[in-house]
Amino acid sequence: MATPLEKTFDLLTHTKNTSAVGVLVAGVDSPDEAVQALAVKALLARGSTHGIVEVIRRHQLLARPARELVAKNAAPVARGLRDSLNSGDGPLRSNALELVRQLEEFSELPTLTRLLEEKMIRDREGVENAAFDLVNRLYEHMQFGTERDESCGFLRDAQRIRHQMLATLESSCHRFQVHRSRRVVEGLLVLSDPENIYLKKLFQECSDEVRGVAADLLNNSKHPGVLNLIVTSLAQNYPLPATFSAFERRTDPEFICHLLRTWPHKLTAFQLKNLKELRTVAWLEPTRNHLDLVPAALHCQLVAFLMTTGLSQPQKLAVLEWMVRFGSPEGRLASTDVLKQLEDGRVQDVVLESLDSAVPDVQAWATGQLRAWSIPNAMELLVERLDSSIPEVQQAARAELAGFDVRRALEIFEQLDPRMRTAVGHLIRKIDPQAPHKVQEEMLNAIRSKRIRAARAALAMNMHHEVASALLVMARDSDNLVRRTAAEVLGKVRSREAVEILLEMAGDNSPRVRETAAAALDEIKAAREASSGEPSADRPVPEHVGERMPS
Amino acid sequence: MYQIIAIAVAGFLLWLVVNRLDWLKSTRKQYSQSQDALFAELCHAHRLSRADRTLLGLIAQTTGPNKFCSVFVDSRVIETFAQKNPGDAEGCLDLCRRLFGSRN
Predict the structure, then answer these.
(1) Over pLDDT 70: what percentage of chain B?
(2) SS3 for A536?
(3) C-alpha angle A43-A46-A50 in degrees, rounded to nearest 5
(4) What is the pLDDT of residue A146?
(5) Which residues contact B11 (CB under 8 A, 6 or more apart)?
(6) Angle at A290 between CA A265 and CA A140, to 5 degrees
(7) Is the CB of B82 inside 8 Å of chain A's CB atoms?
């Protein structure tokens, strides 16, 4: 059942008596929030322009429930917005401007642009800002679904509204001499695309002054819509000269980052053609310090952009050299690849200088370039850097010497003299800390000769202690020669397990294996006696094993 | 001759009736858009008795011309009247209850 108040407001909503509007306006002024909300609801339902204007006039004073009603009923409120905007009452217009923003009343743009043309308008800045806010809101809606922004909601009629707004803005641009609002021109640039008819009309039919303003905005506006217009215009067969000029002149980080961030994976034929026509790009002049502004993450794209432009070779080289000296690791690599193709000798100097850089990444990059640029004594420098205290440099040296791995060492170790074998072992271990593990794997290879060669190499390269577990497996191999080789190497290991397995092998079926095992045990015993009869501290030979050794 | 006079008189009377009807219509229309009519509509909606209407009419007169229907949306008007006229306080309280519910 309806409450008495609801009964009153229901009648006031539906009565044909127009005096009800006045009563409802009085209700809007009520300090009671419930009465106020009912009055606002009734006024919105009646749709009387006068009543809605009065609601707009009091919008700042409304309590939260009433404000929420206004926010939810954009369509009825819009009926009063135009009258409120056209009113000479400052606070009323101010409220209406606020509601135009809040309710995204795109249809009010023509009213706003017309207001801008009024010479005596008081809050011109507010009107200008509201118009530009509408442009911004629509721009944000149009970004819905793109990878850039999904924070704003989807606007179903976005394209239709955009078309209408562009028409309004373009027509307002023709009256620029009256309103002199740059925001109107900027709004058109923000919402248009390179193929848009209104943009073309702006540059073809508007006065020189307006074209000048548009060109200036293309050079200076940091609005993402304008930046996007400049960048996308390069995909046109005949881009607007003003956008081309903006490409050449702009040096602000916003533009540079937008350009590089939206750099396509693959350029179209038109983009390639247009980029080749770029003879100057202000921000690519290393002397002007704009390159410092480019985030490291965009250095690769910078190199890609640079190489597609029509800049002169010396200019390109200068940028690439800057990149080699100061760029990110990825950017440095990208520019190095390009420089290799250009065979630029100056890079050698940069590499040598960078070897002593205080920045670890730079040193690491230079280390990685030693062989590529045929730097004298590259191998020596690389081996030195295997012992670098900087992990990045060490890693770069290892990566450069990765070709010289365990398998390569195993292939050549028989041709090396004994001292060289030990040195190779050290080197291999530095290049690949996993080398002993890999030797161990080779010692368990299915091919007998490989097992034997790996065991001998392990001894020669002084890795036999680390591969002891594989030697124990080899000691139980079915092949006599493999067991013999294992016995030989185990004699040098001298651990408790080694002695135990050698003792076991001393009773092997093969006389050659028995002989080798006995010789190995002798060797261990001799070594033990040589070290004052005490087993070494790190690899002790237990007493009971010594007692069991054959004399 | 008499016929002509009779027709003229009849025409005049007809014109007078039509004119009067128009006047009545316009007066009625004017009234239907007035605060008085709205006041009556609201009283009817709340089923107020003649005594209640009289009292409410008295209270509404304190709000000033062309605003007296605001008594239906602003309980303060009745409260103020009740304070100034303690003799009608009980009737005012009853009106408040009937127009604004138990909250007042």
Answers:
(1) 97
(2) coil
(3) 65
(4) 61
(5) none
(6) 55
(7) no
Residue contact A23–B70, C-beta within 8 A: yes
Q: In terms of DSSP H, where are the helices of A432-507?
A: 435-443, 448-460, 468-474, 480-493, 496-505
Using the beta-carbon criterion (under 8 Å), do B32 and A22 form an inter-chain contact? Answer: no
Domain ranges of chain A: 494-551
Does residue B79 contact residue B92 with C-beta atoms inside 8 Å? yes
Token pair 């040589």: residue = A530
Note the ipTM here.
0.80
| Residue numbers of chain A with a pLDDT score lower than 70 | 144-153, 340-346, 532-551
Report residue B87 CA to chain centroid gap: 25
Block residue for tokens 């709205």: B38
Predicted local confidence at residue A152, as pLDDT? 58
**Residue of A195, A143, A192 whose CA lies nearest to A170:** A192
CA distance A110 to A522: 106
Neighboring chain A residues of B98 at a CB cutoff of 8 Å: 4
Distance (Å, rounded) from C-alpha A192 to C-alpha A163?
9
DSSP sequence for A416-430? S-HHHHHHHHHHHHH
B77/A319 Cα distance (integer angstroms) = 81
Q: What are the pLDDT digits (tens) for B53-83?
A: 999 999 998 887 778 888 999 999 999 999 9
B72 contacts A39? CB cut-off 8 A = no
| pLDDT value of residue B103 | 56
Q: Which two tokens stand for residue A456?
A: 């001998």
At B44, which amino acid appears?
A: H
Neighbours of A194 (CB within 10 A): 19
B40 reaches A (C-beta below 8 A): no
Look at residue A540 in the predicted model and tell me its pLDDT: 46
Start-to-end C-alpha separation, chain B: 75
Helix (H/G/I), strand (E/B), else coil: A129: helix
Closest of A228, A188, A217 to residue A205, by C-alpha: A188
| CA dihedral of residues A274, A276, A277, A281 (deg, nearest 10) | 100
3-state secondary structure of A228: helix
